[in-house]
Design brief:
It is a single chain. The protein is an all-alpha fold. 77% of the residues lie in helices and 0% in strands. Helix 2 runs antiparallel to helix 3.
Length: 115
């Protein structure tokens, strides 16, 4: 039994775009994939260090460090939205993964602390 080709509906196009978005970081050569994964891990490392060590040295403590981190993340999001129109390059993918890793580390730390 053969499958009939799917019609080009809006739902089908949305599914294709979602698949390309999810698999976009997985496909490619080994340098691209390793750079993307390494950026994600370095972002997590940086985020966990900010919440553990740098918070003590910043005047204002934890609220000021979190505010600065949120401002930095929002700045990267706003710049990406204005500068990148089509498929983002490797630099923007690395910046996104650094941002995602940092946010994940801060959220994980908040869950550990119960706040």
């Amino acid at each position: 039994m053969t499958r009939l080709p799917l019609q080009r509906t809006r739902f089908n196009r949305a599914l294709e775009q979602l698949g390309a978005l999810v698999l976009g970081n997985v496909l490619g050569n080994w340098r691209y994939r390793s750079s993307v994964v390494l950026a994600l891990l370095l972002g997590f490392y940086a985020g966990s260090n900010v919440t553990a060590y740098v918070v003590v040295r910043i005047p204002g403590g934890r609220p000021m460090a979190v505010l600065l981190m949120v401002l930095l993340v929002e700045l990267v999001v706003r710049l990406r939205g204005r500068l990148v129109t089509a498929q983002p390059g490797l630099g923007w993918v690395i910046a996104d993964n650094l941002r995602i890793g940092m946010v994940y580390a801060v959220v994980l730390e908040a869950f550990k602390l119960g706040t």
